[in-house]
Amino acid sequence: MSSRTPPDSPPPPEPSLLVSALLRHRAPFVLIYDRKGYVRWASSALLDILQCSAGDVTGQRAAQFLAAPAQAALVSTLAGQTTVTVGPLCTSQTGDEHHLRCLWLPLTDAHGALNGGAVIARPIDERAPAEQGLATGPAGREEGEPQGLATGPAGKGQGEPPNCGSAHDHAQGHAEAFGSLCSATSDPLHPGQLDDGTELPGQAVYVAYTDQLAARGDTEGILVCLGTIEGLDGIRHQFGEAALRHVLRETAARLRELVREGDLVAYCGHETFAAVMPGVKDRKQADLLVARLRGALGRPYRLGKTELLLTTSCGCALSATAFSNAEHIRSSARLALQAARSEGGDTCRFYEAGLSADFLADSPILQAALERAITSDQLVLYYQPIVRLANEKLVGVEALVRWQHPDEGLLVPARFLPVAERSRLIERVGDEVRKLAVLFAGRRPPLRVSVNIAAREAARFELCAELTTLVRKARLSPRRFELELTETALLREPERARTTMECLRQNGFSLALDDFGTGYSSLTHLRELPIDRVKLDRSFVSNLPAGSTDKKIVRAVIDLAHSLALEVVAEGVETQAQASLLRELGCDLAQGYLYAPPLSEDELERWMDGQERRSQTR
User: Fold this and answer.
1) How far apart are the two ends of the chain, measured CA to CA in Å?
2) Beta strands in 550-616 (DSSP E)
3) Which of 328, 339, 404, 596 could form a disulfide with 323 if both were Cys (CB 3.0 to 4.6 A apart)?
4) Are 199 and 44 in contact (CB under 8 A)?
5) How far is CA 214 from CA 109, 203, 218, 333, 371, in A?
6) 8 Å CB contact between 395 and 388
7) Per-residue pLDDT reduced to its tens digit, 202-240
């Protein structure tokens, strides 16, 4: 291998933004070369199949590593043509040929002059996002499907072969978009600005990309999220630096699996990841995207035989026209992240106008106020009806805590429960909620009342005895109560949680697995846990009936639950079309604004009277 770059070779193209995008789109095999065909960068996956190091390849003629058909495609890119090939890309030192699906792209500088090329390759049995119809913008998406996070193939019928013409058009758009992004940065970036540990773009790419999007003036909005993985210092101390690097790489891989065309995932250092998602129209769509990001990071991490469940703090800023520039968006996301962390972590905050640095110092004040609220009857319950889909008759309510703050009015749980979790007030809040729920049940026979159990409480052995005593003193049947636990709560201390659940079930309480699909959904857990119902998370319901992928997921969950003799409750039902489809798919129960928002007890009574009158007139 003696074909080193000649001394008078032109400066190499600066490919890091292109590389960043390719890594985001899960193209493991990437080769970038200058306009004379000399290698400037190769991905680690490609180096592995070549059985070479980066030093062996960089500066060599790219053609010597390529199979004959691939050499012809390389020549085409250096003539300014975009090419799609399926077949052998390269040959290893042992003579093994590697057949891949390849996109060959010419690269241009800020002035449009050709200065090199790149090949993006993946295994033949994998379809690239472009070939799945996942192009940026409305084209290739199903109506109602959010831009930004992949939910599965779209834009083609099931089993339809890839369209090479579409791939060609997409590749051309790819090259133009990346050229635009490169030309928007006055200080060109280089491959060294990819983080070595995560293989994600670094802080500089994150800044450059948000600057470019803001300068472009996107009217559909930009969602910027910053997330930190909590508990990494403990991993470093207990398992060592290698384990920490494994967790960061695994986190990066999970995030790469979610992003789609036009999104950026970057690693900003200090255990902080950034996600930039253009084309997010409103908060509802943003909530769905964030739920999927957090769900991916909520799955357990494996370190040898050890399984760890880590939590994430997340801060987001959503902009259509509310931010003056990209730095304003980034600083707002940072402020939201600081707020989330100050509230105890394991939560997500969106930037809003009232959020300021002053608020971040108020957690001790908020904690003291919450302690007073518990002892002065400021915690109240609101009740959201749960209906049977077959006849829309009321079968129960979910009890949801609110704080009737003397100065700020009615506060939702997101404003105070994270502080309760951090300060260990959560057990006292839980006790108060259960007492209020039991009093309500005594006044409202024969409704079933669902009560949420916090993650910290799920592992308390005393919970079962305390709740059983409370209900028996009120002369009520435990069957009147359903306890809802999330997958995250069950996996934090699984053996203790299982023991608590088994005790509750033996004493007659019903159990439901809440927010199913956003955490670590394991068939083994579904089969072995003593649960009666599965609550399907609203993020899967919101795209119905238009989103075919979500429809498939919902059908699969319903079929799986029924095979295990479990009922399914759909959360977040807002339209008749959603209710009709859920009914058609066999879903048993539903709750959501289609039927009623969370109601005070007086409002619930009026709602029930109205339901009774309507049933009599049918």
Assistant:
1) 85
2) 567-570, 589-590
3) 328
4) yes
5) 21, 17, 7, 15, 43
6) yes
7) 887 888 788 777 776 655 688 999 998 887 877 887 788
d(CA 75, CA 77): 6
Write the pLDDT tens digit of every residue in 554-589: 888 899 889 889 999 999 999 999 999 999 999 999
Residue ranges of domains in the chain: 16-127+162-183, 196-360, 363-605
CA distance 354 to 223: 19
Distance CA 146, CA 170 (A): 19
d(CA 375, CA 387): 34
Q: Say whether domain 196-360 belongs to CATH 3.30.70.270.
A: yes
Q: How far is 348 from 415, CA to CA, in rounded Å?
A: 11
Q: Which two tokens stand for residue 617?
A: 């007139």
The token pair at 190 is: 């280089």
Measured CA to CA in angstroms, residue 421 lies from 463, 501, 535 at distances of 16, 21, 23
Q: Which tokens is 213 given? A: 């999007």
Enclosing H/E stretch for 173 = helix 164-183
Helix (H, G, I), strand (E, B) or coil at 192: helix
- Tell me how far apart the alpha carbons of residues 467 and 471 are, in angstroms, rounded to a whole number: 6
CA distance 31 to 63: 11
Residues 522-535 have pLDDT tens digits of 555 667 788 999 99
What's the Cα-to-Cα distance from 172 to each of 41, 105, 177, 485, rounded to whole Å?
Answer: 21, 7, 9, 48
How crowded is residue 339: how many other Cβ atoms within 10 Å of its Cβ? 25
- CATH number for the domain formed by residue range(s) 363-605: 3.20.20.450
Please check whether the domain covering 16-127+162-183 is classified as CATH 3.30.450.20.
yes
Rounded-to-integer distance, Cα 232 and Cα 243, Å: 9
Longest CA–CA span in the chain (Å) reads 91
Separation CA 140–CA 559 (nearest Å): 29
Greater confidence (233 vs 245) lies with 245
Does pLDDT of 168 surpass 50?
A: no
N residues, the chain: 618
In angstroms, what CA-CA distances link 598 with 88, 314, 592, 601, 603? 60, 26, 9, 10, 9
Name residue 227's beta-bridge partners: 273, 314
Judged by average pLDDT, the poorest of 225-229, 327-331, 398-402, 442-446 is 327-331
Q: Do domains 196-360 and 363-605 have the same CATH topology?
A: no
Q: How many CB atoms lie within 10 A of CB 125?
A: 6
Contact predicate 377/353, CB 8 Å: no
Half-sphere exposure (CA, 13 Å, Cβ side) for 604? 21
408's tokens: 């700020």
* DSSP 8-state secondary structure symbol assigned to residue 220: S
Distance separating alpha carbons of residues 347 and 341, to the nearest angstrom? 8
